[in-house]
Write a structure and sequence with these properties.
Structural class: alpha+beta
Distance between the termini: 28 Å
Strand order of the largest sheet: 1-4-5-3-2-8-11-10
Order of helices and strands: EEEHHEEHEEHHHHEEEEHEHHEHEH
Strand content: 15-25%
Number of strands: 14
Length: 383
């Protein structure tokens, strides 16, 4: 069965990419319902054409992505066809006649077909079950990377070249942030006013800063924006540097999240979210976040900015942030930064979750309304 719906969505915010949202975002979500059912959901989001008005290269990429969705040629449509599920749903959302989002969901009792889908995109997976007692079942999902990242040789060379340049930018930021933290430790009474200016969060009666403080904050803010430049598409480019780094270093350059019905007992490799587990991205932004505490803590860049839409951007509280212990070292050389970033661009060898469920929590596709399963999985999608 296949249900196809075309919806008209609100016009995309023209500032989305400027706010660090990636032009094309892909997300695969697995809902594991015991030993009888898996719901597979794939989402592809495309920003509106207005963000590429002055960038023909980006406009061509977005046009191709929309055309592939409308013609059924995108990454996910053929893969879902190969799942051969008992029930599936395809939703295409449009704005002003242009595809903006594609959502595919399917329910199947055959995890082997799901494993084949993952393997075709760079991950291998197994799902095992065994009975603990009359009431409880134990399940184990294991996922690991296979194959090579999909970037072309030219894309890999571009990432290597720009990684060296970005390492200089990160080193400059670390130096300015260390000077900023050094000042705040000498003047802890000025932490909240200075952080309020840095975060652009001001109360009804914002405290005034002197000229030296304004210049100090301005330098840090400028360095933060320069570091975050890897999340923006530059003139004449079609991809952000962060997207290219994912293509160059991750065999599975798509966001992967997993939800299990039951109680997690052991988790390895996955990052735990609110009701879901996430495979960490293998890209420069994640590598930067992993450096927190090495030369600087807390990290200001990743506390203020993320590669997500504007409504999901971090919103740090100056007063709370001011109470966090600040630590910094002698700022590193760019070569040391580059080496540390490269070390963070290696995918973990294994992602694993072991969980336990009761007989009541196990879903049987023969007895439960499968459309309800698709709806429930969609309602529980991670943000």
């Amino acid at each position: 069965m296949r249900a196809i719906r075309v919806a008209v969505a609100a016009v995309a915010c023209a500032a989305a990419v400027a706010c660090f949202e990636e032009p094309v975002r892909e997300h695969l979500h697995l809902t594991l319902l015991g030993d009888q059912a898996v719901v597979v959901t794939a989402i592809q989001d495309i920003v509106g054409p207005e963000v590429a008005e002055d960038n023909p290269q980006l406009a061509a990429r977005l046009d191709e992505a929309r055309a592939n969705i409308e013609r059924g040629w995108d990454r996910w449509r053929p893969l879902f066809d190969e799942l051969q599920p008992g029930i599936e749903r395809t939703t295409i959302e449009k704005s002003n006649g242009l595809a903006e989002r594609a959502l595919y969901s399917a329910a199947t009792a055959d995890f082997d077909s799901v494993a084949r889908l993952l393997a075709s995109q760079g991950l291998d997976a197994t799902l095992d079950h065994h009975r603990v007692d009359d009431d409880d079942l134990e399940h184990e999902l294991r996922v690991w990377p296979i194959g090579s990242p999909p970037a072309t040789s030219n894309e890999r060379a571009e990432v290597e070249r720009r990684l060296g340049e970005w390492s200089v930018t990160v080193a400059d930021y670390l130096a300015e942030a260390a000077a900023f933290y050094h000042y705040l430790d000498r003047r802890p009474d000025r932490a909240v006013p200075c952080l309020s200016l840095l975060f652009d969060r001001h109360g009804p009666e914002p405290a005034a800063l002197d000229k030296a403080e304004e210049e100090l904050v301005s330098r840090v803010k400028d360095r933060i924006q320069e570091v975050a430049g890897i999340l923006k598409v530059g003139p004449g480019e079609a991809y952000t540097l962060n997207e290219l780094s994912r293509l160059a270093f991750d065999p599975f350059p798509v966001r992967l999240t997993v939800a299990v019905r039951g109680t997690a007992v052991e988790v390895e490799g996955f990052v735990e979210g609110d009701g879901y587990l996430e495979r960490p991205a293998v890209d420069l932004w994640r590598a930067l976040a992993a450096l927190e505490g090495r030369w600087l803590s807390p990290d200001l860049v990743t506390a203020m900015i993320a590669p997500v839409p504007q409504d999901l951007q971090p919103d740090p509280d100056p007063e709370a942030f001011a109470t966090i212990d600040r630590r910094w070292t002698e700022p590193p050389e760019p070569s040391a930064v580059a080496a540390a970033l490269r070390a963070g661009l290696v995918p973990p060898e294994l992602h694993r979750v072991l969980w336990r469920s009761t007989a009541a929590e196990v879903v049987d596709l023969e007895r439960e309304d499968p459309w309800h399963l698709l709806d429930a999985a969609l309602a529980d999608l991670p943000p």
